[in-house]
Amino acid sequence: MLNFILYHTPFFYMIQSVWRDEAFSYFMAKPNILQVIINTAHDFNPPIYYLLLHFWMKIVGQSDEGLRLLSFIAHLVSVLIVYIFAEKRMSKKFASFMAVFTLLNPMLLYYAFEMRMYSFFALFTFAVFYFFYFKNWKWYTISAVLGLYTHSFFPLILISFALYLLPTHQLNRRNLWLVFKPFLFFLPWLPILVIQFINSKNSWLFPVDLQLIFSVLGNLFTTYEGTPGNYWGFTAILSVIIFIFMIIGWKNKKKDGLMLAIPIFLPLSIILGYSLIRRPLFVNRYMIFVTVFEILAISLGVWSIKNKIFRSAAMVFWLFLVIAINIFSPPYHKKTDFKSTFAEINKMTTSSDFVYAKTPIGFLESAYYFRKKDRAFVYNPQGIAIPDYIGVNIVFPYISRGSLPLSPSRTFLVADNASFELLISK
User: Fold this and answer.
1) Model's pTM, two decimal places?
2) CA gap 267, 287 in Å, rounded
3) Are 368 and 341 contacting, i.e. CB atoms less than 8 angstroms apart?
4) Which residues lie closer than 8 Å to 52 by C-beta, 6 or more apart?
5) Chain centroid offset of residue 153 CA
6) Mean pLDDT per segment of 10 residues, for the chain of length 426 residues?
7) 30, 266, 330, 337: which has the highest count of C-beta atoms within 10 A?
8) C-beta neighbour count of 230 within 10 angstroms
9) Could you tell me which of 16, 14, 20, 17 has the C-alpha nearest to residue 395?
10) Domain boundaries, the chain
């Protein structure tokens, strides 16, 4: 039973080896506050998460589970917001369903155990929706500003809210100002955002195709990105089911349904359209805010079912689905096990030894787990320029080495698959 819980449920995400982006977060958050902001300006996202992680590291140190716990706390706060919203808007019993449904959503739960900003992106999305819905403009502004400084795609949410004002006959100067007021506090970062967008032309992002478009709602609900490769049909069917529940909710509560539909379809249209016409921009995790509105829209659809038996059946269906996905998915999200590799290497190293990553791809994990971080480098005898999107250049601008250190130093040469060999140059 313990083996099942640790390796076949989302707990596995908490205990498995840190991967490259998580190691990047650690090194981005490690310097002093000013340097964190400077480094972030050269990245592709704003600094809030790295600043939060900076202070969190002072409490938990370098513990994989401790560092990931910050994201899980954000996830729990998201669940609390959903519960409070549903208790006010629906009923206490249905609030319990929505809270569990949110807690167990595969997309949110996966990133709740990752040392990245996406769980906070979801949290500030829930918060800004809650305060927008109840017209608490002070806290709407605060949560929106935090969201804007968390992820570069957050402006799409505010644009969606502004568009919602038009068909609901609420479009006037005052409301438009209240919706867009958070951008006033975002102006200092806006030029940096533009530069980041221009610099992101060279990236690893994959092209968008029709298969992705037809299954995108299901992909964002389940965090499916193509592994295993034969589940595109399932996520396409799930996309249809999600859309049906959105229609049910919209028919019963047109304004609420519209408020949830626009932040789903407007951003998806913009990002997928741009990805098809110009260059790829779409990544599942960048669109985690769409998952937030999917959860709310599905819940509205379930709540709109008048027959109590059918409503209960729908609640059971969605809870069974998310539980099944959370049991099925973890083995397919396994990261390369650098943790075990470096547990062995760290036992063998002496004070004069080095670790060289065979390629920049495996460097950040190597530097993260090696106990002598200032002796970790990339083996680069050809002097090939390291692409910016790998992230190495920001936190380690001088880590390329063209030759191995001489004896008595030894070099642990680590491959991208976490295997290694011990080399001694005479």
Assistant:
1) 0.95
2) 8
3) no
4) 70, 120
5) 12
6) 85 94 96 95 93 96 95 98 97 97 98 97 98 97 98 97 94 95 96 86 82 96 90 96 97 95 98 92 96 98 96 97 95 95 95 94 96 93 86 87 90 96 87
7) 330
8) 7
9) 20
10) 31-333, 338-423
